[in-house]
Design a protein that fits this description.
Blueprint: E1 8-11, H1 15-26, E2 31-36, H2 39-49, E3 54-57, E4 67-70
Parallel strand pairs: 1-2, 1-4, 2-3
Length: 78
């Protein structure tokens, strides 16, 4: 039985995360959130991704979506 993905969130606000978000949304994926450490960068990434994508602070992402995509630099991972 196939598992249904009800929502996707991306953690990261850089070029890769923003581009991935935009492509996923344009292709009809249920992308709902982008989360990041910097409020302005997160808002800009969500705006770039397009309509229906909400910017969230990093602390609020847990449990917000059924799937998470981590798109940050290696140095951002402890």
């Amino acid at each position: 039985m196939a598992q249904v993905i009800t929502s996707i969130a991306i953690i990261g606000t850089g070029r890769v995360a923003s581009s991935l978000a935009r492509v996923l949304r344009e292709r009809g994926a249920p992308l709902r959130f982008i989360a990041g450490r910097n409020r302005e960068h997160t808002r800009a990434a969500a705006k770039f991704a397009g309509r229906g994508v909400e910017a969230l602070p990093l602390e609020a992402i847990a449990g917000a979506a059924s799937r998470l995509i981590l798109a940050v630099s290696d140095s951002a991972i402890p």
